[in-house]
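Hi all, posting the design record for the shared folder.

TITLE: backbone redesign
STEP: 1 of 1
STRUCTURE INPUT:
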């Protein structure tokens, strides 16, 4: 078992099949053979799953215990029963989500969202408030894997100790790439989770995270950590949210509220990390493949996500810089020598080569590590 994590094996085979087939038909630049490698299956198995998926749709891979489709003779009472069954299964879903889900399941004559809300009220099923829909005006990445948001949710106690949920969300599609019931927030825990995630889905162009440990550093001018430098070594741009502005990670914050409402708060207490992880795995399928998302015009995240063609490399190549750069190595004291001065760069860069380029302001230079500016130095001060 990876330190601090519940292993991938707890994920249901049904969920893996559904996700694999959805990504296989997404039209991404990832070859079928590479996708099979990422999921640890043979191509023969992959083609078998895909054949079932194409013949029977997602229902051929999911739990077949579902309500039958409606017919022209279906009574109003039966429609109400369908609405109430969905609400009981997903107490945080409102009229719009239930309406879209019934349509996605192929039911005819689905009533308007307002009518569904009236049905829920009539059957006294509105006792649970829906997630707050208002909030922040945010950007959206142009394509899948352009930007991922990464964070820990607030911890809670279980019978086997503190649980620190860790998740990663694709900004464009809202697809949840990983959801783990971790036991700590250590760097090794995050590296192990990211390695698994990159191996399965490929790597993003950029990751957005907050300024806390283990990926951020609140020391002014030196926010880089060993975890962030490892991501830079992989060719991933690292962006930190503005201090004291959690809305920068607004999609992930909203994801946390939804997860709290639909999973964590539904039990007064949790017996173990394994129990939490099992609930996370079950809900992750619902969130990615079944739960209509308001900001996606009612689509589900899996409709908009596709795997990244950027596979995780087997080895990291040394940093290289254009001939116009001044290149220096960061010494054991985390400093470089430049134009007669000793300048601190940051301990995570110790032993690595950095590039130095002038800015438009006299005496001011930008220090770059690979593709990422890491600090500005002013030699006139």
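Okay, here is what came back for every position:
SEQUENCE:
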């Amino acid at each position: 078992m990876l330190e601090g994590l519940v292993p991938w094996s707890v994920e249901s085979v049904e969920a893996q099949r559904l996700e694999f087939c959805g990504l296989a038909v997404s039209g991404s630049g990832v070859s079928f053979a590479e996708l099979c490698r990422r999921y640890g299956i043979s191509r023969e198995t992959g083609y078998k799953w895909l054949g079932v998926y194409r013949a029977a749709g997602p229902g051929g891979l999911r739990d077949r215990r579902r309500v039958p489709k409606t017919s022209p003779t279906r009574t109003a009472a039966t429609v109400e029963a369908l609405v109430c069954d969905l609400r009981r299964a997903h107490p945080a879903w409102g009229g719009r989500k239930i309406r879209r889900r019934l349509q996605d399941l192929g039911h005819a004559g689905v009533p308007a969202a307002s009518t569904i809300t009236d049905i829920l009220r009539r059957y006294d099923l509105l006792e649970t408030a829906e997630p707050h829909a208002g909030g922040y005006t945010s950007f959206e990445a142009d394509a899948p894997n352009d930007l991922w948001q990464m964070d820990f949710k607030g911890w809670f106690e279980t019978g086997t100790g503190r649980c620190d949920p860790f998740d990663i969300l694709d900004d464009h599609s809202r697809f949840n790439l990983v959801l783990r019931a971790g036991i700590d927030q250590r760097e090794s825990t995050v590296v192990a989770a990211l390695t698994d995630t990159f191996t399965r889905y490929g790597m993003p162009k950029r990751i957005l995270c907050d300024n806390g440990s283990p990926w951020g550093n609140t020391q002014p001018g030196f926010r880089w950590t060993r975890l962030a430098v490892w991501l830079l070594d992989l060719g991933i741009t690292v962006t930190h949210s503005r201090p004291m502005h959690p809305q920068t990670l607004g999609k992930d914050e909203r994801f946390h509220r939804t997860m709290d409402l639909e999973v964590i708060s539904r039990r007064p207490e949790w017996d173990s990390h394994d129990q939490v992880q099992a609930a996370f795995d079950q809900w992750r399928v619902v969130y990615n493949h079944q739960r209509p998302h308001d900001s996606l015009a009612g689509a589900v995240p899996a409709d908009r996500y596709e795997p990244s063609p950027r596979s995780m490399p087997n080895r990291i190549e040394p940093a290289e810089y254009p001939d116009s750069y001044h290149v220096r190595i960061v010494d054991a004291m985390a400093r470089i020598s430049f134009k007669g001065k000793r300048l601190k760069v940051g301990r995570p860069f110790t032993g690595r080569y950095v590039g130095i380029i002038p800015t438009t302001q006299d005496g001011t230079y930008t220090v770059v590590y690979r593709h990422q500016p890491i600090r500005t130095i002013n030699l006139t001060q």
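COMMENT: The radius of gyration is 24 Å.
Let me know if anyone wants the other runs.
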